[in-house]
Amino acid sequence: MVALVVAGAGIGTSFIAFGRSNLKPLPAVPVGHGYVIRFPDGPLGYEKKGLAILDAATNLPAGTKVDLYYFSAEEENPGETDVKDGRIPIRLWNGFCHATERGLEGTTMKITAIVSPVSTEVLGGGGRIRQPAPPPPWQPPSVQAVLGPYFEKVSGDQVVEQGGQRELVASTLFQLPAGTCQKVYGDVPPGPFPQPPFTSCPNPDGALPVEAGDWNTTGDVASAFDAALTAGDTQTLHRLADPSVSSFGAWASTGSRHPSWTGNVPFGDPSVATGCGALVHLRTVGAQLAPSDGENAAMTYFLILRPDGWKVWGQLPVTP
Predict the structure, then answer these.
(1) Three-state SS for 173?
(2) Burial annotation 247-275 (CB, 10 A radius, 16+ → b, else e)
(3) Distance between CA atoms of residues 232 and 252, nearest Å
């Protein structure tokens, strides 16, 4: 069993009675398509401690070791489990719920399952830290006999090449039901919006949860936007800006044509909530830029995830 149970301060805590009765069946695994991992559309049920049961179905042999990686704006956690009777056990605590103007949102989490012939540690948004030399096979002998010591016999649409070795990788995004929330974070600001320091706010309608996007690309978008501000390249600015941005006259860049991304800030900044509302805050990622490598961050750009990618909607200078 894998459990993601994280304690933290919050508001509006509720406690709901759970049990393992009336579990939904696993999703069907297609036949004749190689090895497959299939996640359910939602919880199959709940355990007594309020853990959602999100077991994935698979045709991998029993005993196959599976790395799990949980990613949200608040948490990044690696895990490990074994295949048992066509099931990959996955548990998730609904303890990162958020109050918004549109109602309560349950915990949103991207879960990635990685099946590798060698042990793999998953950190930092999906990057892998590998040993200089290939480690010995990690899977049990019974699994190696079926899949091959280095997955020579593994096939299917989910098979990828990573660092010269074959892996089976599948991921999905879960948003747990608000009715099963165990802990709620955030207040709902009174509005109206925008409020200082912002003069405009993005429309959250149609925006995707930030967990649905690749956070490693936010720096590319913010850097290109900042460089376009410096160069006065309005065509690029309009392409990368959210539709809520009507002009760029009041915007300031780092002054560099080659800014350096220093990292992301979940939710951007506390002022996003008071300035544009709780839902915009929940849908925002901040990308911090420095004028060049080795310098301190000077500007935070606020990005929202649209169906066609990350879009810049605001900015604030970084306070030393």
Answers:
(1) strand
(2) ebeebebbebeebbbbebbebbbebbbbb
(3) 11
Backbone angles phi, psi at 274, to 5 degrees: -75, -25
Closest by CA to 234, choosing from 248, 255, 251, is 248
Contacts of 113 (CB under 8 A, 6+ apart): 37, 56, 66, 67, 68, 88, 90, 168, 169, 170, 171
Residue 121: the pLDDT is 52
| Cα gap 233→96, rounded to integer Å | 40
Question: Cα(273)–Cα(275) distance, rounded to whole angstroms?
Answer: 6
The β-bridge relationship of strands 65-71 and 45-46 is unpaired
Per-residue pLDDT at 79: 93
Listed by start position, the domains of the chain span 37-180, 189-317
Number of residues assigned to the chain: 320
What pLDDT score was predicted for residue 135? 59
Question: What's the mean pLDDT when you consider all of the chain?
Answer: 89
